[in-house]
Amino acid sequence: MKIFIREIEIQASAQTIWKVMMDVESWNLWTTTVTHIKMLNASKMAVGTKLQIEQLNLPKATWKVDSLDPEQEFTIAKRQPFLSVVGGHEIARTTTGHRVTLSLKFSGLFANWVAKKYGSMMESYLDTEAMGLKRACEKLDEYKRKDTEIRTATV
Length: 155
Description:
This protein is an alpha+beta fold. It is built from 2 helices and 7 strands.
């Protein structure tokens, strides 16, 4: 088994972070690693939802939501006979905001080979996705604060 992990501090509410992460069909707007995501069997994220994900330099793949705990975590998985990949997305409160942990766990007969061959790309993708998520969430939270200030000032 091989696990790749990225943690990033985000100065935004858990609700904002969760909203951005749950809008999977818009991920391509905040990360360059994803070119397209389509929900195949549902209109919102839930355990069992299937996602068709297209990413740079990777074949189109179908992932399934394995777990989902609102505003805390969700996992998606792609399982094949000799290789399983689980993508984790967790939100934890910190004293200054929230820490998001993104992870990729490879298991199965080919896990070490795939992780070795694509490891540097996976590390780079997690970095890009973490930074893109941070920018999107902080920008959205800032917009919400300014909108509230304007509405309060005009009342």
